[in-house]
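ugh ok fine here u go
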Amino acid sequence: MDFTTRLEIEHACARCAIDYTHKVDFGDFEEFSNLFIENGVLSVGPLHLDSRAKILEAMSQRPPGMMSRHVTSNIAIDVIDEETAVGMAYFSLYRTMVNDENGEDSPAPLPPVAIVGHYRDKFAKTADGWKFAERIGVFDMIDASQFA
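structure:
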């Protein structure tokens, strides 16, 4: 595989990891689920979903008013071949509940970090571009009080 092809694959997979955070944080759950192949796996903490349809259903059940921000860094992609790649990224999750008093242009109060962890990713090339075949979220540190 030539250097340019490898870079294009790395970029496409890194973009998938970045789009994941934007889509989930801004509630675009249809597009979020489309980041996965049809039988893609999302396994984060106690949540284990094994299809795009189940991912969409679960994300659509997030509580109204839940605001989250996934801060992702140290994205590393290793290209296996022209059809598959693997990756890893660190994440910090901030989450809080907002209500009508927090207008759209008003910031919510800053919560402490809820989770620090990392993702282990498998990517697959599809007719629609690179997608997650599997994303496993590992919680390395957690503020359990935010999940009581």
